[in-house]
Amino acid sequence: MELGHGRKPIVERIMEPAEAKEKIKNLVQIPIRSQIANEVIGISYGFFSPLQGFMGKADVDSVCKKMRLADGTVWSIPILFDLTAEEIAKLGLKPGMSVLLTFNGNPMAIMEISEIFDYDKKEMCKAVYGTDEAKHPGCARTYAYADKFLAGNITLVNRPKINAPYDPYFIPPLEMRKRFAERGWKRVVAHQTRNVPHTGHEWLMKGAWFQTYAELPIDKPYVGVLVNAIIGAKRKGDYIDEAIILTQDELRKSGYFGDHNHLTSLTFWDMRYAGPREAVFHAALRTNLGLTHHMYGRDHAGVGTYYGAYDAHNLLATVKDELDIVPVYSMNWLFCPHCGEITSEGLCNHKSEWQKFSGTVVRSIVVDGVKPPRLIYRPEVFDVMMECGEKYGFGSPFVTDDYLEKRIPVFEIPPMK
User: Fold this and answer.
1) What is the mean pLDDT of the chain?
2) Are 199 and 122 part of one and the same domain?
């Protein structure tokens, strides 16, 4: 039995098609949007263990006020299923009912409704995001929820079809653990990302690899880096998902890492940009994937100026003894022209000469389409990024209106045979 976050068993809540076809007959159907579909996958495959479904009020209240589930397990972000009071009345939904969740018209999962409740969204925002400002993207998402919430366990009845080029990178927790064992990895450190990697990101991973290796013998490759790319809702100006996942893997393919110490994967999740709280959520998620360590850089999962540079580190320290994953903290990696190399702000003392990897500067390089120096982008990574822009991004590696309207979906729920 594989144990995940909170030392609870990882359980895949997936029903076989023959049984599912009988179970879903005559069930009330509820269409769901992409965020809920992402979370159904997260629950069903064990990414969100120990959750077995969408949270009830006791869990939500405890998560908001204590950063714990009602049973005491550390958990930092509510996982909610929202519906309007009008929809609930129209469908005749009540606790004790089983309903069929459909995505784009096809059956996806059965939900056993255990509770219907409401919750103060403003108070939820203050607790989770440290602000109730609607301009914070997590608050905006919360305020957009309908006025009622349904709690209940979820069972997947129709597995998602992962489309190319993502299909090799969807590796659920139980399968991921097998991959680690096949490679002989004793420790694996997570790299959380939603970016195309420049060399600062590369050295963030390499630095964490060194930290994680620590006292282990060096006669065999005992430590791996798992890039776990977050795939979810996109905003204009983000990197397109295809570019993120394929450029991350290109670092391995081009030899900057190797099969012996690097693996790329994805998780379906709509970022909340909750900073410190999201850092704790990431610890739970990556524990379930079988990782032993997790790298945390500056302003992890933050947005704007809502969080301090190391607020995530400080919050993690308060629950570190209850997590089954070791935080690996990192300062910024940057280019120092005096040293003539990528270095950490914690290493070299040429502060007045440091050149940080500004998102604006990196973006301008990409927009210009001129191949940058190797010290900023690996040439193979840059080429793959630009190729992705042409092949998948309608001419740009950044999200545009065309991409949002016409992109190939990451996954589909096929018709049930």
Assistant:
1) 95
2) no
